Amino acid sequence: MLKAYNNLTSGMYLVGTKGDKESGCIVNTFEQVAASPEMVVVAINKDNYTCKQIRKSKKFNVTVLDENADMNLISRFGFFSSEFEDKYKPFNVKYDLLELPYIEDNMTSLFTVRVKEEIDASTHILFLGEVSEAVWFNDKPAMTYKYYKEELKGKTPPKASSYQKSKAVSGYKCDVCGYIYRGETLPVDYICPICGQTHFTKITD
Ligand SMILES: Cc1cc2nc3c(=O)[nH]c(=O)nc-3n(C[C@H](O)[C@H](O)[C@H](O)COP(=O)(O)O)c2cc1C
Asked: Which of 9, 25, 175 for a ligand 1 pocket mutation test, highest count of atoms within 8 Å of Cβ?
């Protein structure tokens, strides 16, 4: 069963919106569902700040990451909350048709979407929406979730739709992203290669 889930094909996306404030998160659950009108869907965990902000604004955008998108961007948008920091601050931010923030660097395209329906999917809300604008930036290869996991050795946080609990191992687990350092002793000042922070908790089998 796990293997079937792990081998589903999906991409890597940045969802942005603005309710009370600008917010955004990484997802791998964005899909086209109809062509005329152009309808899309995205699954966002109810505890993500971006979910609350989309519920407020009834609009969101999605940019498609290319394979050069780096771990700084992915960890900032994928492991931290917009509630406590302005995630867009370090980037060259642009604004779409609906005045929502987006980042063009290392993205292949942009979709701007008005929400038509919210569907309750237990831990997540499915936002079904109609595309107001779709912009093609370049022909660079889009990053797949498989590429993220296998080439960039990326991890998935508990709030992602695709999160799977890992088997028990000995080592040290990153308090933010769950990355596991295997070994008896954590090197002094060890920095998490995924999210860049330094807080770890010892774990045992
Ligand atoms: C590879 C990857 C895939 C993710 N997929 C999803 C997803 O499909 N849906 C979701 O709600 N969160 C997903 N997340 C988790 C959110 O990006 C993460 O919880 C983020 O910190 C939420 O930020 P926010 O509180 O500012 O909205 C994913 C994260 C990563 C790194």
From this structure: 25
Nearest ligand 1 atom, CA 80: 21
Closest residue by CA, ligand 1 atom 3: 27
Q: What's the pLDDT tens digit per position in 145-174?
A: 999 999 998 888 888 888 777 666 789 999
**Maximum distance among all Cα pairs of the chain, rounded to whole angstroms:** 57
* Site of tokens 């509630």: 83
Ordered DSSP codes for 44-99: EETTSHHHHHHHHHSEEEEEEEBTT--HHHHHHHHHS-TTTS-TTTTS-EEE-TTS
**pTM (2 decimals)?**
0.87
β-pair partners for 112: 61, 133
